[in-house]
Amino acid sequence: MSNLHLIGGEKGGVGKSVVARILAQYFIDRAMPFTGYDSDKSHGALLRFYAGYASPLVIDDYNNLDRVVEAAAANPDHRILVDLAAQTQHALTRWIEDSGLVELAPEVGLSITYWHVMDAGRDSVDLLRKLLDTFGGRIRIVLVQNALRGDRFEILEESGEKARAEQLGARIISIGHLADATMQKIDARNTSFWAAIQPVDVGGASLGMLERQRVKVWLNRVYDQIAALEV
Fold first, then answer.
1. What are the pLDDT digits (tens) for 17-60?
2. Number of domains present in the structure of the chain
3. In the chain, how many H helices and how many E strands?
4. What is the DSSP letter of 177?
């Protein structure tokens, strides 16, 4: 079975690329072969932090998107990880529908998982509603409540969309808060999460001992949730 992981959320700034980076590091740490694709033309995070595993992807080019599925079909032991840039959902949906990908997937042994990354705002809930209207019950959906972008999700709870998503089979995970200063240090040095938890003398990101420990705890908490999803 091939596994295609689409990391989206449509809205800019919700933390899609952080989720893509976490998944990339999870696959590396668990020795799960994967191929990454980055659709952000201006500052792609997979290309920046995991350059050895990622290639650029043009979302509005059917040939580019086709090769992602072909790569998945040709490498059933590989996960395919796609970091979707903001405002690419329309082009992606059009390609999926025009290609009949949802219907084709079982025939070629392809599992599609869409990771909908959310902040605590109304826009993320509205975008979730549209996603469920289009793909709810048709593909596997994981809601990612990203506390790095706000930790109060009352709007989501009160909207009824979270309950609707669960009724349609969606799974829900949460990314806890990590100190802004720590994340800024990691990003400023263009380091992977592996490097973030290593001492400087073995290629680390110049974080303090307790900072490294907090990153390790933060990662492990997310890893436990990802493991339960059997990705």
1. 999 999 999 999 999 999 999 998 777 889 999 989 999 999 98
2. 2
3. 11, 7
4. -
